[in-house]
Amino acid sequence: MPLKKQSKIDAHSSIPFSRSSSSLSECFRSPRERMQFNTYFASRLVNTSIPLDLGALKTMNFYHLQILRDWQWIDFFKNCSTTFKNLVQVFYSNSKLEHDDSDKSIISINSYLMNTLICLTLEDFKNLLSLPSGGVSNEKGPFSPVLYVKPHLVANLDIHDRLLHFIITWVLRPTSKHVVIWSIDYWWIDCFKSNRPPDLTLLMFNNITKVIGKELGSSLTLPFGTYLSYIFTRLHIKARGDPPVKKHQPIDFGGNPNEVPSPKKVPPPASSSALPQAPSFYADTLAIFDAIRLVQEEFRGLDSRVSRLKDNMGSRLSSLEDQLAQLVANFPPLPPHPQKD
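and the corresponding structure tokens:
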């Protein structure tokens, strides 16, 4: 996928609003914007990322650490911020996409927070998040079938690839699904195994614009909440009064790091008679907690969708009653019923 054109608008040209106040009270320019937020975004889930302990990775001789250095992603992993859920929700609610003259490529995301106009281009994402440019970006592309593990559970990966999967699903491409290995996860793992750096800047930019471009009734989780919050702090946008999301603890597999075995470069083919490697107790416990968290988030998302449907149905019934009343008013009154002699 070719890189998109860059806007000439500077993301740092906005003047921040410094008066201490509730974040939400300074994020809307009209009652319509506030109503749109309350109706479609106030209950949306926001992805948060887990900080990465680079020192622990070095101590445990993490097999993929050198690739992270070669891809110049170390500075990106040092980005750390409190996730401001309200501000992220408002950012998505107020966002508009700016296209180039051909109307085919998105050149910037324009939004509004804390009395501040925000314009973010692909170049801004690269600079603000300390990311390199270039790389592969087709997450639906092919990957080596030798990577398959049955039954596609993270617990069946060796400890290095298991940790890599957690980095992918908690940091690089945050998601609520951490137990099962999906096709996109295999694609990411294959990029590390074959040393094909993904274009992380473009992937993040495209995932965010994809959600913005969805219809308002969409229930998609709002991605990259932690890194958008980091960008807000880089742009000096005040978040006073905004309740932060509790920070996650850094990714850690526990145990003695010196006992972590090095993975085999070429995994052996699966055998029906061979038993899978027993995962550590910590990994099993973490997988159980991930499964519980996934179920909780799915129920929470279902509840918010039901609430929105109920609100929309009420407003539509009210509108229908008004239209029927106007329609009846256009007809002459019915003649009185004749009285019996």
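(Above: one complete record from the training split.) Residues 1-21, 253-283 have pLDDT under 50 and may be disordered.
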